[in-house]
Amino acid sequence: MITIRPESISERDNYKFLIGSVIPRPIAFITSINSEGVVNGAPFSYFNIVSSNPPLLSVSIQRRNGEKKDTLRNIEQQQSFVLHIADDGYIDKLNQTAAQLPPNQSEIALTNLTLIPSETIATPAISEAKVRYECTVQQIVDLPNSELIIANITCYHIDDELYANGRINAAKLNPISRLAGNDYAHLGETFTLERPQ
């Protein structure tokens, strides 16, 4: 087994080890809005659940060359955003939103994704996602080269075809996850293990 101390390698090598081994990672497609009303859309795979009581999510947004990304600045200003679960139905358009655009240009307009209003916050959502969460900021933690956002879910939106008896059908959701480089994955084969009593 190879043993490497993180401080002995470059940031890029640390990045490659992490994204190559912490897999698959769910993808959050986030819409946010700036003070001029421009809607930003961007994917993030440093994302997960924090708590179910209350329902909290986490998203880490790394800085680019030391500068905060548009999504983070918008979230800091508005204290809200919409988090969509990436699924197979709109993954190609989602990928297009990863392009680096100036703050006054919307990635949503570039991809022809369909904006719709939210119920509990001013930030609009996209209709193509089968699952989305309206979120408000609980806390933003400043880290050395990123910010960790802890978000309250204020409203769930779940496509009718996915929902039955209080549960979501994962196969019908057909989520897309992030691997390393340009690689992604579908849900794939699943199995069941009973927890020990």
Automatic annotation (TrEMBL):
SUPFAM superfamilies: FMN-binding split barrel. It comes from the Bacteria. Keywords: Flavoprotein, FMN. GO terms for molecular function: FMN binding; oxidoreductase activity, acting on the CH-NH group of donors, NAD or NADP as acceptor. Residues 20-170 form the Flavin reductase like domain. Its cofactor is FMN. Signal peptide: none annotated. Pfam families: Flavin_Reduct. Belongs to the flavoredoxin family. This is Flavin reductase family protein. The lineage of its organism: Bacteria, Bacillati, Bacillota, Bacilli, Bacillales.
